[in-house]
Amino acid sequence: MGCLATHLAWHHPITRHLNEEAGVWWLTHVAGLNPATSSVIVRWDREGIHDRELRSDLIEACRTELARRVDEPDDVLLPCASCN
To answer: Which of 1, 15, 51, 65 is the most exposed place for a label (fewest CB within 10 A)?
Structure first.
């Protein structure tokens, strides 16, 4: 089944070829997050699908990013802030 990060990794052009290690690799190398210390990941692991506020915040962030990509299609793969 895989965690949320694994599903993201399986659909990302850089990590879609990976298997079991996909989620952790995507988090550390693409998103620039430490799975053990990221407040978003820790909160998701604790409360996950039962936290409606977190789910709402995440979907809003995804919609905002989608709108940015539609408005700026040449900048779709901008590096994340934590990767700099």
So the answer is: 1
Q: What CA–CA distances, in Å, run from 46 to 4, 50, 52, 54, 59?
A: 13, 9, 13, 11, 18
pLDDT band, residue 76 (cuts 50/70/90) = low
Instruction: Say if 16 falls within a structural domain.
Output: yes
**Does residue 79 carry a pLDDT above 70?**
no
Q: Is residue 77 part of a domain?
A: no
- Are residues 32 and 83 in contact, defined by beta-carbon separation less than 8 angstroms? yes
CB-CB neighbours of 28 under 10 Å:
13
Let me know if residue 47 belongs to a domain: no
- Reading phi first (left if > 0) and then psi (alpha if -120 to 50, else beta), residue 48 is in left
Instruction: Indicate whether 10 belongs to any domain.
Output: yes
